């Protein structure tokens, strides 16, 4: 899967199609060799989505936003929110998981870095 977020508050989940794409890239003679299709749309933020991070083993997807929150999504049932993390007083610019998936770190415009335990 591939995840994308934008200024429309949405997170799109994409999956590569089994067949090859057809046609050529815009402004090029290079043939398109992949075709991605949208398989889910996640709604949970009230502002622009700034960063996304897949957990190790792709169990969860973390998203952060200018709405000062981090949302943890179930990566098996995409429309299911696991948690909404609140604790920053400014927009959350970035999220990342530790290599084991035990912790999530978030960085905010409020000049703080928070480390969240996934077991809580």
Give the termini separation: 27 Å
What is the spatial order of strands in the main beta sheet? 4-5-6-7
Shape label: globular
Largest sheet at a glance?
A: 4 strands, antiparallel
Overall mean pLDDT score?
Answer: 92
Rg calc: 16 Å
What is the N-to-C order of secondary-structure elements (H for helix, E for strand)?
A: EEEEEEEEEE
Helix content: under 10%
Number of strands: 10
**Percent of residues in β-strands:** over 45%
| Helical/strand content category | mainly beta
Low-confidence sequence ranges: none
Task: Describe the protein.
The chain has 120 residues and is mainly beta. The protein has strands spanning 2-5, 10-16, 36-43, 49-54, 60-65, 69-74, 81-86, 92-97, 103-108, 113-117. The model has no long low-confidence stretch (mean pLDDT 92). The chain contains no helices and 10 strands. The protein is 0% helix and 50% strand. The strands form 3 sheets. The chain has a 4-stranded antiparallel β-sheet, with no helix packed on it. The protein is globular, with a radius of gyration of 16 Å.
